[in-house]
């Protein structure tokens, strides 16, 4: 019975697009998860639903911040428009930076807009 409960918790913790409470926390968690990811599903919890991304996108995030502790990465909110949050994140010494957009569902769930959003005309 305990094994079933553990399995359900593991599945829920990886549910895609689930996010975390703030856009900054979502970005830090994505940086951390990208380092160990062997598949795009390994980071999908922090990615906004509907976005298409590849392992190349995941590796770009992992490589940009190398071995820097995600807690030490500088994250600045540069603008917010409705539920979109525009972030700039950089290494502590400023040697690398990344501009990225997050989607914040009224402080309840924030996810990172990674990759590209599919054009409805292409489907």
Essential attributes:
globular; alpha+beta; 123 residues; disordered N terminus
**H/E series, N to C?**
HHHEEEE
How many beta-strand runs? 4
Radius of gyration: 15 Å
Overall average residue pLDDT: 87
Structural class determined from secondary elements: alpha+beta
Number of helices: 3
Give, in spatial order, the strands making up the sheet with the most strands.
1-2-3-4
Q: Tell the overall outline.
A: globular
N→C terminal distance: 44 Å
Summarize the amount of helix as a percent range.
25-40%
What does this protein structure show overall?
The protein is an alpha+beta fold and 123 residues long. The chain contains three helices and four strands; from the N terminus they run H-H-H-E-E-E-E. It has helices spanning 2-13, 23-36, 55-64, and strands spanning 74-81, 84-90, 97-104, 110-113. A four-stranded antiparallel beta sheet has the order 1-2-3-4. Strand 3 and strand 4 form a beta hairpin. Helix 2 packs across helix 3 (55-64). It is globular and about 40 Å long. Mean pLDDT is 87; it is low at 1-12.
